[in-house]
Design a protein that fits this description.
The complex is a heterotrimer of chains A (305), B (528) and C (373). With 305 residues, chain A is an all-alpha fold. Chain A is built from 12 helices and 2 strands. Chain A has one domain. Helix content of chain A is 74%, strand content 2%. The mean pLDDT of chain A is 91. Chain B has 3 domains: 234 residues, P-loop containing nucleotide triphosphate hydrolases (Rossmann fold); 200 residues, Rossmann fold (3-Layer(aba) Sandwich), CATH 3.40.50.300; 70 residues, no CATH class. With 528 residues, chain B is an alpha/beta fold. Classes of the chains: A mainly alpha (305), B alpha/beta (528), C mainly alpha (373).
């Protein structure tokens, strides 16, 4: 039972970790990207539609990633070039993506709320030799699908790009002091655009995993605010990659519990589905208490964020 | 002589919309010279240099670098061509180290585009040694005092092999001692064949530090001449087109005995949690203008914010007109009798997107209240009258405040606050970003307020302003008042020493605990 | 947070009443062109589609009354969003506030047997309180802990759906297969004005509220202060406005109006609280407020436009099999375009440094407007 929950927590956390890693780049570059859900939903749709049409998982994942990056580029265009406020543009892009996928679901796949089919290929589970034979840990770590491993292996890569490379230093400087970066001759908008594209890349993987790996179906608004939950994880971890992933995993564990508990307790499904939202809000509250405490200590008036 | 120009700007024109900021300006910079660019606020000095640095596109004219025409569309291109600029407001990332700030943009790398931090730190150390600018490459910038941050900026330019170094009002944030050090550094740079362009409006500094002087007025270079036999008066009249030396006509102050502002043992923290105001006490009486002199970042901001209710002090007492207002409540401070003219007009003192009448009505709502209703027409009418009375130029009551020049924005703030009939007036950097004509009238207003029986407290980084305007001068250093003088009996040097934390004639300990003066001189010799 | 959209500054030009319309109208036109291309890509004739949208929403009382019915909730939600945006608060949680208001009205409607003249007002008050209390959560977090209200609001929307869904499926579920509360009493019902639709008294309440807020914004001290909070909260605080308290008030007032959207649905349209009844009126409200430039009277017009699109889209779905989500796509294209356009003006006016010179320098003053940095 417990290992069961742990196993599914690893699975459930996968899209969260992808989205959080994607959101990290824009966060570090000083942009609060609230459109992660929009990126994910469009990727989920493009991935399943392509995989369904071609029978190829690879094509599906690539299509998902491309669609998500395209939407990211679109958001970046409006925010960086047309100077639309990131919040409004982010909301617009997200709801545009929700609407567009629902529209295409009807027009292209002929379905109204949910699309599922036997012809959608599925990811095989990967059994890692030797590892799977380790007691307790083995069954947890082994037997997942490819994208799950990609998510977890991305964490150190992300940390490396942000903290060990020249590009990462530039991203972080842009995020903290845009004018300093400008004066140093860094093309700030170009760096921001790049982080937005990477956001799109990771959310593309998250979306593709949702519709092709996690389940084999597409439902409108199926991302269920995972992008926002990922954002809360980033806030909570103050933008540090490994910690962010750890918090995302914790959120995944809470969700895994909410999936498993009804079988045990018989509680109403709605109440258990509340758990990830409540956990996220709680995390935001803790972040708020933390910063407010520091601020009260210094006595300044903080209202604008 | 024409062949020896490193930079030549010819017939430069710059429009902002219909407004002509630079009008047919020409200037030549020779290698190895310190070239002062002087002019009053708004004359176009910074704009001209921003054109050279690629921050702004020019409307017309040509720029020659080593005889070749250049078009920089971004600072990156200017940097690549050997032009460096140190801005008045430093462009540094505070939570990063000195080395990181210096190398960012042209970083040393290892394989796979990895950052080579070790090389960065070594290069930074070597560079700072070479030019006698002592700095720890691993120090985090936010922990450095202002003077050292400026060094980071200079090193940043030198790291990029700047042959032309533009310093925009570099002395505004420095103590007189730090200023001397800066001048020595500038000389070292010039002797190494680099050109230093030194933007300022302080005449004494121009004469002390430069080889040649260009004077700007209303977007034009009115003259360029060698610094030899030129007097401050001559430059001043060239700058303004008439002779002005900041002198406010005022009668002797006869302060009332009962203070309007009493501060006792006040301790306040800064945003970063450091103790910014440290057990400070002071008093300001009606019918006197008290000036608070000090180098930026010595607790002035936090002190004023506490009085205004914008920051909660850790401990201590603030009494405005005998009332001790609730802490951290601007409303309470206002009701107790405070009128506050903040330095940060854009973020605190004005709503730039709002119309002038809205800006002028905040704090006066009760005068235009009829039940829950606002008599907007009356408020507009009053604004129209105030625009006339305070000589806010080129504005109507519906003009957004953000469309006004710095001087006119300042007048809007003054009009709003001075008409509140508050017994205590705090003016923070009243002449910052304000042209000379407006400075005169602002100073006159403050003197009128004093004669009217108000207590006036002026916080300024500009010693000229402090000396010409104030009756009494307080010096703040590291959150404490270290000097209290009658402005008629103290000299600038004395105040300057105290601002730098040097007590009474002895060298004592230095402002930032860094290098003492003799030490620097020694290192500079080594550097050469 | 201070950057929340839109205040059109007054101008002295003779076309001063027309000028603010240029932006929204062109945004709508561009959105329709893009939408037309999209429709063509899906293999339909855009002209046919738009013709159907138009006739299906406006021609004949039957269609028009459906449009008006669908306009009503959008006026409420649009006004709720506009009130908050004007004061610089990102209340994108109107969907949740509406659900909570609907639940409160639904409970008060069937569980409290009150004499007729008092029952409707009672339900309305209950809905307003329900919405306001739900809005108080992000407001309190924002005001006291400086937590980004936008993220919290977006999280609270599905939370509200789950909470109300739980109530309608478990403790208070009406007998029968449908997940709903028991029907409200007749004494709690709004009057219906059309045999073709559920157009009801709610629309008058909605319009009256808009007019009231237009007057409030323009003519009261509070309206003046709230606008300043929206444009520069630090300035408002410095000037003695109690920003935290006011933000709390504004957010709860906005939530109360959102709650009224729910009351209208329960008392006027459905006659009971149904689980998951909303097709996303709260989110549409964001688009309405943006298109209206946060002006309460503009909200009425914008809500009518989107109400008509929603109404026409059901005809579209029946006749051509085009999903009603086409309208959502159009709506948020409009938002995106308006956001871009707006921010241009915003940047020009603010002139934060010498990279962005002021939009309207004043030549006759003879002074530089470029602050030397």
């Amino acid at each position: 039972m417990l290992s069961d929950i742990a196993y599914s927590a690893i699975r459930i956390s996968t899209p969260l970790i992808f989205a959080a890693l994607g959101g990290l780049y824009t966060f570090q570059a000083g942009m609060l990207n609230i459109a992660l859900d929009g990126f994910m939903i469009i990727a989920a749709f493009a991935a399943i539609a392509t995989a369904f049409a071609t029978g190829s998982l690879t094509a599906g994942v690539i299509a998902g990633v491309l669609a998500s990056m395209l939407l990211a580029a679109f958001l970046a265009l409006f925010n960086l070039r047309f100077r639309a406020h990131i919040f409004i543009a982010g909301i617009a892009v997200t709801f545009l993506a929700y609407g567009l996928t629902a529209l295409l679901l009807k027009s292209v796949l002929g379905q109204d709320g949910v699309f599922a089919s036997d012809q959608i290929p599925t990811f095989p589970a990967i059994q890692i030799p030797f590892v799977r034979d380790i007691p307790i840990i083995g069954p947890l770590v082994s037997g997942h699908t490819l994208l799950v491993y990609v998510a977890y292996l991305s964490i150190p890569v992300v940390a490396w790009t942000l903290y060990r490379t020249r590009w990462g230093l530039r991203v972080r400087i842009v995020g903290e002091a845009e004018d300093a970066a400008l004066a140093a001759g860094i093309r700030v908008d170009w760096i921001k655009f790049q982080t937005m594209l990477i956001s799109g890349l990771f959310c593309g993987l998250a979306g593709a995993y949702l519709s092709l790996g996690y389940v084999s179906l597409f439902a409108k608004q199926m991302t269920n605010e995972r992008g926002l939950i990922a954002l809360a994880a980033i806030f909570f971890a103050k933008g540090r990659p490994v910690r962010t992933a750890a918090v995302a995993l914790l959120f995944g564990l809470a969700t895994a519990l909410s999936v498993r508990l009804p079988q045990v307790t018989g509680a109403a499904p709605q109440l258990l589905q509340l758990i990830p939202y409540l956990v996220t809000i709680l995390a935001m509250v803790i972040v708020g208490i933390r910063t407010t405490r520091d601020n009260a200590h210094n006595g300044g008036w903080r209202f604008d964020q | 002589m024409d062949g020896s120009h490193l930079v030549a700007m010819r017939g430069i024109v710059k429009y902002f919309g219909d407004f002509v900021a630079i009008h047919d300006a020409s200037i030549d910079i020779r290698p190895g010279e310190i070239h002062a660019l002087v002019g009053e606020n708004g004359a176009g000095k910074s704009t001209l240099m921003n054109l050279l640095y690629g921050l702004l596109p020019r409307t017309g004219g040509e720029i020659l670098l080593r005889g070749r025409p250049v078009h920089f569309s971004s600072p990156a291109e200017a940097i690549a061509s050997g032009i460096g600029m140190v801005h008045q407001h430093f462009k540094l990332a505070p939570s990063f180290t000195v080395a990181e700030n210096i190398i960012v943009g042209s970083e040393p790398v290892k394989s796979f585009a990895r950052l080579d931090l070790k090389a960065a730190e070594e290069q930074t150390a070597a560079l700072s040694k070479r030019f006698g600018l002592d700095l720890d490459p691993r120090a985090v910038v936010s922990t450095l005092p202002v003077g050292l941050r400026q060094r980071v900026e200079i090193l940043k330019a030198l790291y990029r092999d700047a042959e032309v170094l533009i310093l925009d009002e570099p002395t505004a944030v420095l103590t007189p001692q730090e200023t001397h050090e800066l001048f020595r550094t500038m000389r070292v740079l010039a002797d190494s064949g680099r050109s230093v362009i030194f933007i300022t409006h302080k005449l004494r500094e121009v004469l002390a530090a430069s080889d040649r002087i260009s004077v700007m007025r209303q977007g034009r270079i009115v003259t360029t001449r060698d610094n030899d036999g030129v007097t401050a008066e001559q430059i001043a009249s060239l700058m303004v087109g008439r002779s002005v030396l900041l002198r406010v006509n005022k009668v002797e102050a006869k302060p009332d005995p009962e203070p309007a502002l009493i501060i006792r043992n006040l301790t306040v923290r800064s945003d970063r949690g450091a103790t910014a105001v440290d057990g400070l006490s002071l008093q300001v009486r009606p019918r006197e203008i008290v000036g608070l002199a000090g180098v930026q970042g010595n607790g002035q901001d936090e002190l004023v914010e506490s009085i205004a209710g914008l920051r909660r002090p850790v401990s201590g007492h603030i009494a405005i007109c005998g009332v001790e207002p609730a802490t951290a409540d601007p409303r309470a401070s206002r009701q107790a009798g405070l009128a506050y003219i903040p330095a940060d007009r854009g973020r605190v003192g004005l709503s730039l997107q709002s119309a002038i009448w809205e800006n002028m009505t905040l704090g006066h709502q009760n005068e235009f209240r009829r039940g829950p209703l606002l008599r907007a027409a009356a408020a507009r009418l009053r604004t129209r009258e105030l625009i006339r009375r305070f000589d806010v130029r080129g504005a109507r009551e519906d003009t957004p405040a953000g469309a006004l020049s710095g001087g006119n924005q300042q007048k809007v703030q003054l009009a709003r606050e001075l008409t509140r009939s508050a017994p205590l007036i705090i003016a923070e950097q009243p002449s910052q970003g304000v042209d000379i004509g407006a400075i005169e009238s602002i100073h006159r207003m403050l003197v009128t307020m004093r004669d009217d029986g108000r207590a006036v407290f002026v916080v300024s980084a500009d010693l000229d302003e402090i000396f010409s305007l104030c009756d009494r001068i307080l010096v703040i250093y590291r959150g404490r008042i270290v000097g209290d003088f009658d402005s008629r009996t103290v000299d600038v040097e004395e105040v300057g020493r105290l601002m730098g934390g040097i007590t009474d004639g002895h060298d004592g300990h230095h402002a930032d605990g860094g290098t003492g003066l003799p030490n620097v001189a020694a290192e500079m010799r080594v550097g050469q | 947070m201070t950057d929340v959209p839109l205040h059109r500054t007054a101008s002295f030009s003779p076309i001063r009443f027309l000028r603010p319309l240029i932006g929204p109208v062109s945004a709508v036109v561009v959105a329709f062109v893009i939408g037309g291309l999209l429709v063509a890509l899906l293999g339909q004739n855009p002209l046919t589609v738009y013709g159907l949208l138009l006739s299906g929403s406006l021609v004949g009382w039957a269609n028009l009354s459906v449009t008006l019915q669908l306009t009503t909730p959008l006026i409420f939600t649009g006004l709720a969003v506009a009130m908050a945006f004007r004061a610089g608060i990102w209340n994108v949680g109107v969907e949740g506030q509406m659900l909570m208001g609907a639940l409160a009205a639904g409970i008060a409607g069937y569980a409290l047997p009150v004499p007729a003249p008092f029952h409707v007002p009672l339900c309305i008050v209950a809905a307003a309180i329900g919405g306001a209390l739900w809005a108080a959560i992000p407001a309190l977090l924002r005001v006291y802990l400086n937590v980004n209200e936008l993220v919290i609001c977006l999280m609270l929307n599905p939370t509200a759906l789950l909470v109300t869904g739980y109530v309608a499926t478990h403790p208070l579920k009406a007998p029968g297969p449908t997940n709903k509360l028991p029907d409200i009493l007749d004494s709690a019902r709004f009057t219906n004005y059309s045999i073709f639709s559920q157009l009801n008294t709610g629309i008058f309440v909605a319009v009256a509220l808009c007019v009231a807020f237009a007057i409030f914004n323009r003519s009261t001290v509070r309206g003046f202060e709230w606008k300043l909070i929206g444009l520069n909260p630090r300035f408002a605080h410095y000037g003695g406005i109690r920003v935290r308290r006011d933000v709390l008030t504004i957010m709860m007032a906005s939530g109360a109006v959102g709650g009224l959207a729910g009351a209208e649905q329960v008392l006027g349209v459905y006659g009971a609280f149904y689980d998951n009844f909303s097709p996303g009126y709260g989110f549409d409200g964001i688009a309405v407020a943006m298109l209206a430039g946060n002006h309460p009277l503009g909200v009425i017009v914008a809500a009518f436009l989107f109400g008509a699109l929603n109404s026409g889209s059901s005809v579209l779905q029946m006749e051509l099999g085009i999903s009603k989500y086409l309208v959502q796509v159009l709506q948020f294209i409009v938002v995106l375009i308006l956001a871009a356009k707006f921010s241009f003006a915003f940047l020009k006016r603010r002139s934060p440094d010498d990279r962005v010179p002021p939009a309207s320098p004043v030549p006759q003053s003879g002074q530089s407007h470029v602050t030397e940095t």
